[in-house]
Amino acid sequence: MASTGQHLREMYELLNQHFGPQHWWPGDTAFEVMVGAVLTQNTNWANVEKAIENLKDSGDFTLEGLYNMSEEKLAALIRPAGYYNLKSRRLRNLLGMIVRDYGGDLSSFFEEETETLREKLLSVKGIGPETADSILLYAAHRPVFVVDAYTHRILSRHGMVLEEISYEDLQELFMRHLPPEPDLYNEFHALIVRAGKTFCRKRPLCISCPLKDWGPVNISS
DNA sequence: CACCAGGCAAGTA
DNA sequence: TACTTGCATGGT
After folding, report:
1. CA-to-C1' distance for A164 and B13, Å?
2. Which domains does chain A have, with CATH numbers?
3. Residue A99 CA to nucleotide B10 C1', Å?
4. Segment A67-126, tens digit of pLDDT
5. Could you give the CA distance from residue A75 to residue A85 in angstroms, rounded to a whole number?
6. What is the pTM of this model?
7. What's the CA–C1' distance between A36 and B7, in Å?
């Protein structure tokens, strides 16, 4: 019987061998990564890139710049990312918290302890666990594992966890069994998303999936 | 045409 | 508490 830790390390090896390095979450600055984390909620990254391009072209792509912009103008700029009225509000909520509590200085905000950062992010209306953890890992480089729909789907389908497991418990599973290295968490999450998009949609393509024979449950049985 | 995409909060019973 | 619904564009 393989342990949970061995299963997770094997999963990483299989995905890494099949897909290789993902160079994930391109973004010139922590600010850009943070904005992208909100814009990509339930949205294709290609659409987010267009929205970010619009923000850059506006000449106001700074924390204060976006915060001082009208919500209508912000919504128009991020239109390609979808849910633009919702996301302009959420983005403003996030920027507003940093303006009020940290003088609009993102670097000051990122000096907080990881637990404090997470709580502050989750206190913002529109920032849920995945968005908060994405900001912690990809923008603040903290050793926080990001769970998403694919993580949940792949692990439950392969018998690693019950389907009804919570976000926090699934995150805990990874963090208990892997060393707290941001680079590892970054690559692992990117590989999981890549595998999910390629092989583990609602109608799975298990035949050629590198995880076909991985985990406690044999998918083909 | 249907389906999907790196969620979250609010509404309903 | 446990479901369901709204939010929206652009690509396959």
Report:
1. 22
2. 4-23+145-208 (1.10.1670.10), 30-139 (1.10.340.30)
3. 27
4. 999 999 999 999 999 999 999 999 999 999 999 999 999 999 999 999 999 999 999 999
5. 5
6. 0.96
7. 13
